User: What shape does this take?
Amino acid sequence: LNKDLETQAWIYPGETTCGLERQLPTISVTTLKPEYFTIGSNGALVLLTAESHGCNGFSEKNLTLLKENSKTQYITISGRYDSMVLLFSSVENQETQIKTLVDFVLANDVAGIEIDFEDFGTWSAKDYRDYLGFITRLGTELQAAQKKLLVAGPPISSEIEAGYYEWKYADFAELPVDQLVVMAYDYQADHGAGSPVAPIDWTLAIYEQVVAAGIAPEKIVMGIPAYGYVGKTGEFAMELLTYKQASEHPLFSRAI
Assistant: This one.
């Protein structure tokens, strides 16, 4: 890899992702992004600790391990649609949760926060406006603390795909967002099993769309898959597989 290339990796809590301590010294990643928070059913943040959520959850020991094996660390915050709406229920609640995040970043000396709220196709116009307001408030507070904000967004390669979402990358050009993490994968979710996870032409078109929206190239992070799916061709019931799981599948040798 180019020594100046920034490579990022997400890390999720749970028993299926144990073994990180053995794996980290063997990979070349400059930036690690552990998911340490999610939004609870009441619209408040929930800290995903190692004690409550298993391997790779937050603990001082786990965070120290990440710092020893990466140059930069961001804390990823996940959120499903219904919980996100509750988070946005009042400005007061947003400000409370933002304080929790900024305090956590400062107390644990990490680079900043990444927001990974998904189900993009479900968002209403109001949800999207509320989201932009939240991102503006959070980014402003992080920048005041000399920390950074990353935001994960959907793959949009064409006008057709743009019609799936309220989301517009152009809206983020002037917001206090340091990097936009474009989720350029899961193509098969719209096309069924047997389709690629991330066709190259599709991925390049997504990048070109984001640049055309006015986002500076140095602010763009392209998400790429490190996993696969198995399912009946053309159907939409698919099972997510890690590379190790895929390699044990009887049809692995025929996979492209």
User: Anything to note?
Assistant: The mean pLDDT is 93. The chain is about 35% helix and 20% strand.
